[in-house]
Design a protein that fits this description.
This protein has about 525 residues and is of the alpha+beta class. Among the domains are: about 180 residues, Acid Proteases (Cathepsin D, subunit A, domain 1, Beta Barrel), CATH 2.40.70.10; about 190 residues, Acid Proteases (Cathepsin D, subunit A, domain 1). The protein contains twelve helices and 30 strands. The longest helix has 18 residues. The radius of gyration is 24 Å and the shape is globular. The chain starts with 10 loop residues before the first strand and ends with a helix. The N terminus is likely disordered. One of its GO terms (biological process) is proteolysis. Pfam families: TAXi_C (PF14541), TAXi_N (PF14543).
Length: about 525
């Protein structure tokens, strides 16, 4: 079980040829005294040898970083203690939000009403500009390809019942500048339009359009449809500083003054040139070509949910080898190309085992067609896993066959939580294991019991008696016709707890390995 810890400081490590000073591979215990520049990153280090290296081998102290470069950051769960009123309310709002987010990704369900809860997402903090802004906390989202945040003055429509933003709307710093309409990043934000159209939208003079010179005109506002809402924003450039670690100059982000149903901004980690990994990759491939996170298991415990989970940019296997740690074996599966949703991390799902019985997945989960339908999206922003109706019903039938013969169904709890099947039981019950079988590997990813079976005390048996209840936490996403034009399934972050999930962008693979996530912090203290 993960032990509560104080919020760890982020750390950065890299190696160079002149020295093997391992102090660079440790979390700094005191405020660093030196600065060394790596590509366009400002890196805090403790060794004066870095100064010598920079001065002797670089101009203006620019340093090429080796393949061991990496950086850790804490991810914070956004659930507050005020949301832990009753298990029924918490599960209902969370399951409703998971369903809403999933269905928003299919063109037939763009009018699904948004729930009244921000749900269970993880946040990453940073600052912008010079002088730097107050710390900004935004949702980490592997299903989005853009970094955007609320900017002052800010208006959120249909947000009266939503939780307030995690940070106050940003006041742009003196160092911020508007992205010109001829910029390639402007074209990326307006991906459905030809770049010359952007000059016309920005009202560039005709002779400027003919000369393809609209750099003095700002990129026009763009509309962005997100899984839980939408926004209108403009693109700006400014310096991005991740806590105590590194700074990225000319970082591009969306500044939203008006949103619909979405008061909180997003750090997009999906494919696309405007995502955070893509912008890191342009100046440091070692950081931008791979990232992973390890979500600490919390089971909706109000104390455990506050423990920060590590987000890792770059590779850390070399460090673990140096420390003599056992190298963890990952189960890898290939990413699938999605022509309609190119920023999703889609993988093929071959089937799901309930106990020893393997239930094959429908064909549309094994691949993505030309319309963008099918596959399973690995998503940090959706809480519970969503499955197509045919697979979900087969899994539930097998699960109920093994559990329902011994325990009474808790139908009232099912109605009030949005989850099923749920069961009453008097003492610890045995439930069959759940294993996901992804394309390209034979071992599968076996979920810990707490990742798919939530247990709590309930008084909903009709007579007020407190009883133990357990609910399966996989959800019905709808039939195949309803899911056309979008992902066939989503692997939610609740089912990813206790795993390090690796997104290898260079080799286009996603990997899973069971970890004690807090040990990833511990392993770098020695």
């Amino acid at each position: 079980m993960d032990n509560p810890r104080n919020k760890p400081e982020p750390l950065i490590s890299f190696s160079y040829d002149l020295t093997t000073n391992l102090s660079l591979l440790r979390k700094p215990k005191t405020k660093p005294k030196g600065l060394c520049f790596s590509c366009s990153f400002q890196v805090m280090v403790v060794s004066p040898l870095c100064w010598l290296y920079c001065l002797l081998f670089s101009t203006w102290w620019w340093l090429t970083v080796s393949t061991s470069e990496m950086v850790f950051f804490p991810l914070t769960h956004s659930l507050s203690k005020t949301q832990f009123t009753t298990p029924h309310h918490l599960l209902k709002t969370t399951s409703a939000r998971s369903a809403s987010r999933f269905r928003h990704r299919h063109h037939r369900h763009k009018q699904v009403p948004l729930p009244l809860s921000p749900g269970s997402d993880y946040t990453l903090s940073f600052t912008l500009g010079s002088p730097s802004s107050p710390t900004i906390s935004l949702y980490l989202d592997t299903g989005s390809d853009l970094v955007w945040l609320p900017c002052s003055p800010f208006e959120c429509i249909l947000c009266e019942s939503k939780a307030p933003p995690l940070s106050p709307p940003l006041n742009l710093s003196a160092s911020a500048s508007a992205v010109p309409c001829k910029s390639s990043t402007c074209s990326a934000a307006h991906s459905s339009l030809h770049s010359s159209d952007l000059c016309a939208i920005a009202r560039c003079p005709l002779d400027y359009i003919e000369m393809s010179d609209c750099n003095s005109y700002p990129c026009p506002p763009f509309y962005y449809a997100y899984g839980d809402g939408s926004l209108i924003a403009r693109l700006y450039k400014d310096s991005l500083t991740l806590p105590n670690s590194l700074s990225v100059q000319n970082f591009t982000f969306g500044c939203a003054h008006t949103t619909l149903g979405e008061p909180v901004g997003v750090v997009g980690f999906g494919f696309g040139r405007l995502s955070l990994p893509a912008q890191l990759s342009s100046v440091s491939p070692q950081l931008g070509n791979r990232f992973s996170y390890c979500l600490i298991s919390h089971s909706f415990d109000s104390d455990k949910v506050r423990i920060p989970s590590p987000l890792i940019l770059g590779r850390h296997e070399d460090k673990e080898k140096q420390l003599g740690n056992k190298i963890v074996q990952f189960v890898y599966t290939d990413m699938l190309s999605n022509p309609k949703h190119p920023y999703f991390y889609s993988v093929g799902l071959e089937g799901i085992s309930v106990g020893k019985r393997k239930i094959p997945a429908p064909e549309n989960l094994k691949r993505v067609d030309r319309r963008g339908s099918g596959g399973m999206v690995v998503d940090s922003g959706t809480t519970f896993t969503m499955l197509p109706a045919s697979l979900y019903e087969s899994v539930v039938a097998e699960f109920d066959h093994r559990v329902g013969r011994y325990y009474k169904r808790a139908s009232e709890v099912e109605d009030s939580t949005g989850l099923n099947p749920c069961y009453f039981y008097d003492k610890v019950t045995k439930v069959p294991g759940i294993t996901f079988h992804f394309a390209g590997n034979e071992s599968g990813v076996a979920l810990p019991r707490r990742n798919y079976f939530y247990e709590f005390m309930d008084g909903g048996d009709g007579v007020g008696k407190k009883r133990n209840v357990g609910c399966m936490m996989l959800m019905n996403g709808g039939d195949e016709e309803e899911l056309s034009g979008g992902p066939g399934a989503t692997l939610g972050n609740y089912q990813q707890q206790g795993f390090e999930v690796v997104y290898d962008l260079e080799n286009r693979k996603v990997g899973f390995a069971r970890r004690k996530c807090s040990s990833l912090w511990d392993s770098f203290e020695n």
